[in-house]
Amino acid sequence: MGVSYKPLWKLLIDKDIKKTEMAEGIGISTSTLSKLGKDEYVSLDVLVRICKYLKCQLSDICEVLL
């Protein structure tokens, strides 16, 4: 079982926001951004900050792979 952040990348494209712009806006490191890019686990705090920044729900930015 794993997690995919493909919905996040699609949402960023739809909103015309760059990954680095989002990272700076919510105050996450480049290593955390790298983890997101590799579909690795990140803290719930990071995911909540992304949701607040993008004004969306968790289900809009990630999906659980079964």
Mean pLDDT equals: 96
What level of helicity do the residues show? 40-55%
The largest sheet, given as strand count, sense and whether it forms a barrel, is: 2 strands, antiparallel
The spatial strand order of the largest sheet comes to 1-2
Q: Which structural class should the secondary elements be placed in?
A: mainly alpha
- Tally of DSSP helical segments: 4
Order of helices and strands: EHHHHE
How would you sum up this structure in a few lines?
With 66 residues, this protein is mainly alpha-helical. The chain has helices spanning 6-14, 19-26, 30-37, 44-54; strands at 2-4, 63-65. The radius of gyration is 11 Å and the shape is globular.
Write up this protein.
The protein has 66 residues and is mainly α. It is 55% helix and 9% strand. The protein contains 4 helices and 2 strands. A two-stranded antiparallel ribbon has the order 1-2. It is globular. The termini are close together. The model has no long low-confidence stretch (mean pLDDT 96).
What are its keywords?
66 residues; two-stranded antiparallel sheet; globular; 55% helix; mainly alpha
Strand and helix layout:
Blueprint: E1 2-4, H1 6-14, H2 19-26, H3 30-37, H4 44-54, E2 63-65
Antiparallel strand pairs: 1-2
